[in-house]
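Hey team,

Filing this mostly as a record. A colleague (T.K.) asked me to run one chain through the structure pipeline before their review meeting, and I want the input and output archived in the tracker in case anyone asks later how it was produced. No errors, nothing strange. Just documentation.

Input sequence:
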Amino acid sequence: MTISSPIDALSPAELGQLMHFYAESGVEWLLEDEPVDRFAEFERQVAERGRAAATETRVETPPRDRNAAPAPIRPAALPDGEAVSEAQRVASAAQSVAELIEAVSAFTGCNLRNSARASAFFKGSTSAKIAIAGGCPGPDDDRHGAPFSGAHGDMLDRMIAALGWRGDDVAVFNVIPWRPPGNRAPTPHEVEICRPFSTRLVELLRPKALLSMGNFPARFFSGSQESIHSLRGRWIALTVDGQHVPLLPTFHPQDLISAPACKRLAWQDLLNFKLRLSQP
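Output structure:
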């Protein structure tokens, strides 16, 4: 069918034939009131880019100052096996919580440190007998250099206050000191590199009880692969350096934000935890 008349002059039958032709050709949407020659438009764009390239001013790279200090080079992480041994050596050498915090901040044997802004290992009292463990630092932890920062920290502060405790009564830490890039899960090798630091922290703190929040720290300390929904509220006998530390897993503040129905269960866990602390 050949169409030489304006679209407004077509009869209904001719319009129907035109629509049928478009449908057969795969045309689904008519977006322009006037036809556009895409080939001519493409040629025009190519010509404009050519003119812009021809008139572009070349920017010369300034010569390097031979006396300038070289750019800092971030230390490469050690191979996994060596990094674990180095982490064990560094952690064992720390004789106080303050020394351990400083050692973690200076440790360069884990790739996670090289991609994180800062260490988010510990906050609170270095002599507290109440310890709370989180998993991996989140974006707010990485930004502030402390565990349980931002909205998660605000909720944890309210939970601590509801139990009648102050911030100075509690030691809070992340079992992984550095945020994995993109919030990915740490690799098994990265977990083993970080393990000596958390283990040594519990040894130095000697808390009366340990509250772990979320899947990761519960599995980290217990060795179980059960979910937090199965592990929460169950006391786990944890032995660190010959010392028995009762461990109670509960939900992470993020779990409570995402699923407010979990708050009732978390409150039961907190009361259970406080009751254990009050026992001789």
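Quick notes for T.K.: The mean pLDDT is 84. Strands lie at 122-124, 130-134, 170-174, 209-213, 236-240, 243-250.
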